[in-house]
Amino acid sequence: MRLVAHARRLIDAGCSGVTPFGTTGEGPAFGVDERRAALEALVAGGVPAGRILASTSCAALRRPSR
After folding, report:
1. DSSP class of 65
2. CA 15, 33, 62: angle at the middle one, nearest 5?
3. CB atoms inside a 10 Å sphere around CB 62
4. Residue 17, Cα to own-chain centre: how many angstroms?
5. Residue range 7-50, pLDDT digits in tens
6. Contact, 8 vs 45, CB < 8 A?
7. What was the pLDDT predicted at 26?
8. What string of H, E and C letters represents the secondary structure of 5-53?
9. How far is CA 27 from the centre of its chain?
10. pLDDT at 29 (0 to 100)
11. Is the pLDDT of residue 52 over 90?
12. Exposure string (b/e) for 21-44, b if CB count within 10 Å is 16 or more?
């Protein structure tokens, strides 16, 4: 996954962490399932969980099924 490779390069270059889904750009448009999958991939790909700060901003939540 390109996101994992990018995050690892940033940390290897000296960044103290990564902030996926930030408020600048398309971050708030990602759904909960997409965010979860990306965060799990980051950790599985060797990015330390303690160096990930995931934004919780959201443009719109899905309405629960009834």
Report:
1. P
2. 120
3. 9
4. 11
5. 999 999 999 999 998 877 788 888 888 999 999 999 999 999 99
6. yes
7. 85
8. HHHHHHHHCCCCCECCCCCCCCHHHCCHHHHHHHHHHHHHCCCCHHHEC
9. 8
10. 84
11. yes
12. beeeeebeebeeeebeebbeebee
pTM recorded for the entire structure: 0.82
pLDDT at 64: 67
How far apart CA 66 and CA 35 sit, in angstroms, is: 23
Lookup result for tokens 């399932």: 33
Token pair 């599985």 is found at: 44
* Amino acid in position 54: A
